[in-house]
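Each field is set out underneath.
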Amino acid sequence: MSRCMIVEKSAVVRKVAKRILTADNRFVAEAATAGEALAMIEADMPDTIIVEVNPADMDLLDFLRAVRAMEAETRPVIIVAMIEMDLVQMTKAKRAGADDYLLKPFDRMQLLNRFEQVTAAAA
């Protein structure tokens, strides 16, 4: 079973994403803040992390670097959820450890397609 984490301050966005991803037999953990997510990740590294571009309590780049610095058997795929395509932010996030991007708001097909493309490429 694939394990995913959603890091998003909006409870509605977390709930929608979780409902979409669990329908395909994935375990999905939720975190409202980057700090909460890092604590959960240290205990159990997910296969995929979807993080919003502006986490509630930490700079995105610091979060990405912290995840990449963790010792783990597997390297998680990290998808940054953005409300607009910002080439500068995307480049900085990529250098800090992001694997791909997802535009918000997303629907079921957009989320599943992006999720499948990124996880298949990482395999």
About this structure: Residues 48 and 77 are 5 Å apart (CA to CA). The domain at 3-122 is CATH 3.40.50.2300 (Rossmann fold). The chain has one domain: 3-122.
